[in-house]
Write a structure and sequence with these properties.
The protein has 78 residues and is of the alpha+beta class. It is built from two helices and three strands, in the order βαββα.
Length: 78
């Protein structure tokens, strides 16, 4: 058994947001997240009602917290 941490985020785009524009940002955010220490894998999906589910696996809680802080501060993720 490992001590990996699973980060699960559910969200909806703000009203009027263009799904295609959001989808166009995913490669840059994937590149950023994959470069973070402790990253294992990421999955992003969308339900029929427009709810998104992001599932990210990290090697540790420390890695997840550090990546979250860095994500907020990085220009590609703003």
């Amino acid at each position: 058994m490992n001590d990996h941490v699973i980060e699960v985020v559910t969200f909806k785009l703000i009203e009027g947001a263009d799904v295609n524009e959001f989808m166009a940002t995913i490669p840059a955010t994937n590149t950023f997240i994959k470069s973070c220490k402790g990253f294992v894998r990421r999955c992003l999906s969308r339900n029929e009602d427009g709810t998104w589910l992001e599932h990210v696996e990290w090697e540790s809680m420390e890695a997840a917290i550090a990546a979250g802080k860095a994500f907020i501060e990085d220009e590609c993720c703003a």
